[in-house]
Amino acid sequence: MNFPFPLLISAVAYALLLVVIYKGSLSSSAFFIPVLAAVSALVLGGLFKLQHWAGAAELLIGGGTLLIVFYAIWNTRKKQRQRLDWLKLSYGVALGFSGISLGIGWRLGLPWLGGLLQATMWAIILDFVYVTYIRRSTQPPTA
C-alpha cells in the first residue's frame, strides 16, 4: 500500500491557507459572513453533486457567483492592496468559476481551473510565508 503523498500535500496546503485566512483582514470585515456563506454554498453544492441530489447546480452556480462578487467588492474597498491581496482575489475568482463550471456541467474547463486553483493557492502560501516570516524590514536603521 502506497502512502498518499498528494493527499498529504493538499491537506498541508489547505491548512496553511486557513492560517492565511485567519491572519488576514477579511475575518474582521463586514464581508466575512457573505463570503463564508458563498463558500458554504459551494461546499454544500459539491456534496449535493457527489450524492446526485437536486439543487446541486443551483448551489454551485449561486455560491460561485456570490463568492466572485463579494470577494471582488471587498478587495476593491481595501485601502492598500499588495501582491498577496491580488493573489487571494485570483484564488477566489478561480474557485468561484470552478463552482460555476461544475454547476453548468462544463467539464472542459475543470482541469484548467483546477490547475489555476493549485497554482494560486501555492502562490498565496509562499508569498504569505515570505512576507510574514522571511522578509526583513526595508526601513533604514535609526541612529
From TrEMBL:
Which keywords does this chain's UniProt record carry? Membrane, Transmembrane, Transmembrane helix
**Domain of life from the UniProt record:** Bacteria
Record field: transmembrane: 6-22, 29-48, 54-74, 86-106, 112-133
What is this protein's record name? DUF4175 domain-containing protein
